[in-house]
Specification:
Order of helices and strands: HHEHEEHHEHEHHEHEEEHHEEEHHEHH
Distance between the termini: 44 Å
Number of helices: 15
Radius of gyration: 22 Å
Number of strands: 13
Structural class: alpha/beta
Largest sheet: 7 strands, mixed
């Protein structure tokens, strides 16, 4: 049964600023064919899927026919980045259009998202949209401590057809399909059994090329393929309902692949994600864009597409100019990325605070606590296991073996890092060779350091001024703790 809808989640200021139309008015706009009639909005989001693991992006082992079709019918992005390489803050940033550090507790995994931060499904619902989600919405975390009565992605439905069955004719809808693929765990060799050829796997540069890793990546790609099949069923349902060409359809991932050196890091393996946007009549079909975009841009784009004003506190940009193939307000020369606490894997439930600036040529990373272990303590602290910010699996186990021949990969994924890192992306796609101390790169280091500091200051990042550790004091709602959570003593 559909959950009860409450508009109390909207802040009074935002709600008062919106010109709210009755659902019947929207239905009349749609049926009359008015030029500004609102589109449907569908967001399909995978769980731990990195760029470029799609057929359209050139991965020879990835079988993603639905994604590839949507890329032909819409705009495919090659430089899309998540705001944070961790499920909860990434999804919070997508829903709110704000950088994670602006979202208080929402900047962390296993947290809550305070209701004072408006999310686009609530804003669309106030405009008369039917909203809902299936699968993984915002999270993981706890809904109620944030003052909410439902998931920020909207009421939960068993399926897209179940959602559509509640719709009144001609009322526009905003739907979120949250897959749990390709999140771990994987059954070993499931990829090969599903027909993914390990010999065709393109091993990322931050992982050693071994049979174990090839098999592990093949298992991951089998789950990418399963997400694509589910996406195909969603597209077919939209077509069957006659709504596909009336729908702004966005396909992406919350963060990168669950492998060492990827998820929960600010390297490309953790932050660079697939993104395709199909918007009939607006998005240039078949266009491939190298514009630098972040998932915080999706909420402003969605709201503008629906004819709403974008709240002033959203830091994302409207992507419509890029989708139309023209320059405009969405042009930027770099993305800014961040992370705080991922899992509860350090003594005292401490975070690993970092910020980054990613241009087309360089990645600059600022680590605020280089004395801490970036992937978690090397011994089990509370949950997950040693180096617990890395999901367990054959690739992690390979790097953790005593006497491993892959020390450079282990160091990159698990060892402590300096306060500053700088990588030349084209020459070092795996971001394995830190050139921050190279005098030849000193001007670039200063420039990116200054740009990052300016962004942090202008967006109200608490670490821009006091560099406090407030994030370490926020409650943790993850397993194996039960609510109420333990708050670390200070």
């Amino acid at each position: 049964m559909r959950e009860q809808i409450s508009l109390r989640l909207l802040s009074a200021g935002l709600a008062g600023a919106l010109a709210v139309a009755e659902p019947g008015t929207l239905a009349q706009e749609r049926s009359s064919g008015a030029a500004r009639a609102p589109l449907n909005v569908v967001v399909a989001i995978a769980d731990d899927w990195s760029w470029p693991h799609t057929g359209a992006d050139g991965d020879p082992a990835a079988r993603t026919p639905t994604y590839d079709r949507l890329a032909r019918e819409g705009v495919r992005f090659t430089h899309a980045f998540t705001a944070a390489p961790s499920c909860t803050p990434s999804r919070a940033a997508l829903l709110t259009g704000q950088a994670p550090h602006r979202l208080a507790e929402g900047a962390q995994l296993w947290s809550h998202l305070p209701s004072r931060f408006a999310v686009y499904p609530d804003l669309l619902e106030a405009r008369g949209y039917l909203v809902g989600h299936t699968g993984k919405g915002w999270g993981p975390g706890s809904i109620e401590p944030g003052g909410r009565t439902r998931n920020p992605a909207g009421p939960r439905y068993a399926s897209f057809p179940a959602f559509l069955a509640t719709r009144t004719a001609n009322v526009p809808f905003a739907y979120w399909f949250g897959s749990s693929d390709p999140h771990r765990p994987y059954e070993v060799a499931s990829g090969a059994r599903a027909g993914v050829d390990p010999a065709r796997v393109r091993v990322p540069a931050f992982l050693p090329d071994t049979p174990e890793v090839r098999s592990d990546v093949a298992d991951y790609l089998a789950e990418v393929e399963r997400f694509d099949r589910d996406l195909g069923a969603l597209v077919a349902a939209l077509e069957g309902a006659g709504e596909l060409d009336r729908t702004l359809l966005i396909v992406t991932s919350d963060n990168g692949m669950p492998f060492p050196g990827a998820k929960a890091t600010l390297y490309d393996g953790g932050t660079r994600v697939p993104l395709v946007i199909r918007w009939p009549g607006v998005a240039s079909a078949g266009h491939v864009s190298d514009a630098i975009v972040t998932l915080t841009d999706l909420a402003p784009t969605i709201l503008k597409a629906a004819g709403l004003d974008v709240p002033v506190d959203m830091t994302g940009l409207n992507l419509r100019p890029v989708l139309e193939g023209r320059s405009g307000e969405a042009e930027r020369d770099m993305a800014f990325l961040e992370r705080e606490r991922h899992a509860n894997v350090r003594a005292g439930d401490l975070s690993y605070p970092s910020r980054a600036a990613r241009s087309r040529e360089y990645l600059y990373v600022r680590n605020f606590r280089p004395d801490r272990w970036p992937a978690g303590d090397p011994v089990l602290h509370h949950s997950v296991g040693p180096f617990g910010d890395i999901d367990d699996g054959p690739s992690k186990q390979l790097l953790m073996r005593e006497g491993t021949a892959f020390a450079a990969f282990r160091t990159h994924a698990m060892a402590k890092r300096p306060a500053e890192e700088l990588y030349v992306v084209a020459a070092d796609p795996g971001q394995l060779h830190n050139v921050a101390q190279d005098p030849a790169h000193a001007p670039t280091l200063r420039r990116l350091r200054d740009r990052l500091a300016t962004w942090m200051s202008t967006t109200g990042d608490p670490r821009a001024t006091s560099d406090d550790d407030r994030y370490d004091r926020y409650p943790y709602y993850g397993p194996p703790l039960a609510v109420p959570p333990r708050v670390p003593a200070r």
